[in-house]
Amino acid sequence: MPSPMHQRRASGQPSVRVALSRAWAKPSCVRLILPLLLALGASSVAAQPVPTIPGPQDPLPTLPGADDVPWPDVESTTGGEAAPPDAAIRYRVEVTGLAELGLDDEFRGLSSLWLHRGEETNLAQLSRRVAEDRDLTELLLRSIGHYGSQARITVIPPSGSDPTIVRVATVPGPVYTFSDISITAPADAAGPADPARIVTRLLPIRVGDAVDAARVQSAQDALPLRLADAGYPFARIAPPDIVVDHASRDATLTQSIDLGRRGVFGTITIDDAVKGMDESHVSLLSRFKPGDRYSNAGREDLRRALIQTGLFGAVAIKPVAGGVRADGSETVNLDITGEAAPPRTIAVSGGFSTGQGIRAEGSWTHRNLFPPEGAFTARAVAAQREQVAQVELRKRNFGQRDRQLLVTGGLTASQQFAFAAETIGVSAALARESNIIWQKDWTWSLGAQALVTSQRDRSVRGDPRRTFTVIALPASLTWDQSDDLLNPSRGFRLTTRISPEFTLRNRSNFNYLKAQFEATAYQPLGDQFVMAGRFHIGSIVGANRGVIAPDRRFYAGGGGSVRGYVFQGVGPRNADNVPTGGNSLTELAVEGRYRFQAFGQDLGVVAFVDAGEVSTGISPAFDRLSLGAGIGARFYTGFGPVRVDIATPINPQRGDPRLVFYVSIGQAF
């Protein structure tokens, strides 16, 4: 319903004005803004009928009080006799004075002159468009608080082969500001008698601000959500009453608001659109309990958590009044309706790197095979140096929000430079997750792993095959202060991993501790350039390299390690140039990332220097660092950057390639 907005002339006579918002470039916004701005009109002294809103084909209404604003003339510099009405005219449009006010795009989106530029027209059509755009310019300026503006539209005849030029020049009038903002409660208000204390801080309009129609409308649109977030979900908000005074060049805003009773969370109900998602499991996802103060942020957080499960295509949560409590607060129950998403997913991915060759991976997932949120995945990898067949059970929000239980089992075969291994194993882990929607500061994982593996150690003469039985208890802890999970540009991450391991080999057993620490940091330099750094060290304490299963030793080299070298290409080698692995590891990297827009795509280029070392001792020696350097390209997508890197070893060993090429998804670190 249109809100009464008034303006007074210096003479005291009422006048009706129509103001447009700068948001009018979108047709849907026309219906929202016009009721608010209709008439900066009917006088506060005497009520006047509200004019009807013109439709798309109707002429704009006559604006009384036109003598308040100097009315621009259409000035023509054409000489001699006017062309016949049906004479063909082509013209181009030049606009000045609107870009500085941020109205240039809005004018071009609504202007009849601009819409038909370059088309054949005649003088009658051109004159009508000039008149329409003259009114449009004045209304646009009023929408941001400028009154008494001048719009001069000049038609310049063609010269030679040049077309006719239509120049739209605007001189904005003075800015009108709010001199008073008054928030009151109706006589029958259920809420506080003085709502101004709460509403004023939530309404982003202050005394002294310009009478900006778009800003006023935006504030009114956001007010119900802001009040709900403050604990008042059932507020009754009357349209604002704005009075404009041309004599003093200011305006007042008066609005009646009944906040209602302060709300507290009550019960949660959900339909049966998704199997297993009952009230008890949904309550586990909420960050509030019954009796907590109601907030729209809490309700929205729950909705996003339901979407994040991947089981819903759409979710709506409606607050429902549940009655008045003894303390005078209002119980707010949540009624959840949702649309189930397809539960099954087939995924295929691939990659390539020099040394490892082509890698293809595929998986089939049912995200709710064991409800609620019990996902089953069958996964297979086919690569030149690795083959995997694995099944996985992942139970998300396991007993607590953002905690998952992961159980995996399967067979792997690996044919690397340092070893060949065939392994069967099972593992389980309990972890606190981080995801794109809620990136956590702290994440952790506790797990257990049991495997039996038959391996050939190619660094030992004769390539002997041995069987190892390994029991491991891996754990990790991460402190993440970066700004993005997939493509960080600021902050840092610190990760510690430890894994006590018990190994049985040839009827003898031994124990050791495998420990690692990794730090990454990201620093923006301007809007498009980021410096990134990585430091990674590791140590195996308690057993010599020679008795540890070859695939449990430390190796370096490759796309996620030291670029410029193939996988396992960094570190000690035997007389046959075969990597031996080691008890300690050091990796360092520095990378400069430049991101830009080109060819309609989001692209990036990268330059990097990597270094790494593997030692047979339990502590890094830093005396045989292998260095690599290179450049790369990034293709940024909605699921993360696609990475293409090419690198070369700076101090290669015998047999190292001159260039190494990597293709994968995600940044190197």
Please state the CA-atom Rg, rounded to the nearest Å. Answer: 35 Å
Output the number of helix runs.
8
CATH architecture of the largest domain: Beta Barrel
Describe the largest sheet.
17 strands, antiparallel
Helical residues, percent: 10-25%
Low-confidence stretches: 1-85
Summed up, the domain count is 4
Structural class: mainly beta
Specify the CATH class of the largest domain: Mainly Beta
Query: CATH superfamily of the largest domain, please?
Result: membrane protein fhac: a member of the omp85/tpsb transporter family
Strand residues, percent: 35-45%
Distance between the termini: 55 Å
Outline type? globular
Question: What is the compact description of this entry?
Answer:
With 669 residues, the chain is mainly β. The chain contains eight helices and 29 strands. It is globular.
